[in-house]
Amino acid sequence: MTMFMSSLQSAQAGPFQPAQIGVDRAEAIAPIRVNHLDVFYRDLHALEDVSVTVRPGRLTGIVGPNGAGKSTLMKAMLGLIPATNGKVNWGNGSLLAQRERLAYLPQRAQIDWRYPATAWDVVMMGRVRKSGWLRKFSPTSKRAAEAALKRVGMEDFAQRPIGQLSGGQQQRIFLARALAQEADVLFLDEPLTGVDKKTEAVIFEILRELASEGKVVLAVHHDLGPTIQNFDEVILLNRELIASGARDEVLQSEFMQRAYGGWAGTGAGAAA
Ligand SMILES: Nc1ncnc2c1ncn2[C@@H]1O[C@H](COP(=O)(O)OP(=O)(O)OP(=O)(O)O)[C@@H](O)[C@H]1O
Ligand SMILES: [Mg+2]
Fold first, then answer.
1. How far, in Å, is the centroid of ligand 2 from the Cα of 17?
2. Of 131, 207, 208, 256, which residue is the least packed, with the fewest Cβ within 10 Å?
3. Complete domains list, the chain, with CATH
4. How far is the centre of ligand 1, averaged over its atoms, from the C-alpha of 67 (Å)?
């Protein structure tokens, strides 16, 4: 635990100093550019003209009140719901055209936990694109799944049905699935829902590592308390983009006031 915390702090203290390979990969992975995105659910204009850049090598949090469109932004970027207008570009193409390089952890409420699969099966789903449904999983895929389970500290739970794990354990398994995918872009919708402080630290440690490897790491984050300090950049949303960029600049009281109105939530003081 102490190890986790100290490496977390040193990672936060300044620009990351990874081995050369990390620097190369940081250059290799392009930022994601969202341009003028509009999403409607029937008459509800859920996102209006949102333009934002998500950079590799950083931890980026999407913040805003309930119903602000945080999950909608993620889903629209992933093509899971249609956008009326706008584009999501990544490198020289659209993000959607490169879907096999993306991993997505949906918001907890949207996962069917009665799914009849073991923790191992869930993690192996992360390898389907690499192995194909009908082919047998390769030793490489099995090794990747084992490593992912270990990284989230769940190697002893591989054979448990996913529905019989605690909420925090389930979150770890879904994070392991995303890791097993070895994606260059990770989207996580409230990954800390239902997890304790220890798991929270483990998850941030892993996200920090992924960012240090030069990946694009984007997480919806609900909590405006101290955990927001883990993020380098923040996208503050309330149907429209209120502000985006360096965390402390975005979390200024003026922007927070605009996003949250009269009700500024529990941690707005800490953020101001
Ligand atoms: N499938 C849907 N059909 C119709 N309206 C929807 C649908 N999904 C979301 N909405 C509406 O769109 C708005 C944005 O929802 P979204 O789930 O993106 O918010 P959020 O910021 O993720 O909220 P939360 O913090 O509660 O997760 C809300 O008003 C919501 O009621
Ligand atoms: Mg949501």
1. 33
2. 131
3. 2-263 (3.40.50.300)
4. 5
